[in-house]
Amino acid sequence: MQTGFRFAHFSDAHLPLPPGRSGGLWALAGKRSLGLLSWRRKRHAIHRPEILAALLADVAAHAPDHVVVTGDLTNIALPDEFERARAWLEQVGSPDQVSVVPGNHDATVRVPWDIGLGRWQPWMTGDAPAEGFPFVRVRGPVAFVGVSTAVPTPPLLATGTVGAAQAARLEAVLADLGRRGLFRVVLMHHAPILVGRSPRKALTDRRHVQDVLARGGAELVLHGHHHCNQIGSLPGRGAAIPVIGVASASAAPIGRGQAAHWNQFTVGRRDGAWRLSALVRGYTADGFRTEMRYAMTYERHDAATWS
């Protein structure tokens, strides 16, 4: 489909850690120390800034109407990381052009809002500025609904939680946007389905969130977190809701891990029904290349169909 509203999705940038012991030894206590060890042992070789830069250049070359980033800009949630990530977001695009939700690495430990996630507030603020999470940004025919699943967890766990209060607001927001006839895209770091067999990285209240999505309605859910391309679905109101994850935006092709990817989605209408098409771009030694194209038509009363 050549016309329509186009938006890019990537996730898990994992920007390089600042040099030195930012904040002193006290700042690296607890779970941060494990994250620092992981970064120094292997993650610094996986998450490469030059690959992330190449991805951003490829995204810019496709000139999407909007960009969405589903978390994990940082590694161990140091204040310096949040500040450096803000500078990086300014390069990605203006707050009006880019929407962000936080990930579990962005909540490695509790950080005061003003020196933590608050640094990114312009990119996480909805059309109604005081609404918090979930925030809503309407761009063309699309309503982007940003959900936070980022909560501090004990060592060795990378779970996320939406929480009852946010889930209740999410259901009401989705229902209202559905009545307005908008294409609803839910943004969250953790998948609302179980990816893989281990619950160690799962959304703890995913069954409740699944019920919320089924009742409130949505046309698409985008997530990151698992560093792999993934396509699943959930029951929705009249049609299945696609649940699509993407590999890390900075990942080098090392070992069995999946190299960096990003997805471009195009939303349009055909014969009175929504149509979604996707372009999957993956990193190779020669730069980013198109690996796959697929499309989905949302029928009015029947199950959605893929092609």
From TrEMBL:
Gene3D superfamilies: 3.60.21.10
Keywords, alphabetical: Hydrolase, Iron, Metal-binding
Annotated ranges, domain Calcineurin-like phosphoesterase: 5-228
Domain of life, per lineage: Bacteria
Family membership noted in the UniProt record: Belongs to the cyclic nucleotide phosphodiesterase class-III family.
Protein name: 3',5'-cyclic AMP phosphodiesterase CpdA
Species the sequence originates in: Azospirillum rugosum
Lineage summary: Bacteria, Pseudomonadati, Pseudomonadota, Alphaproteobacteria, Rhodospirillales
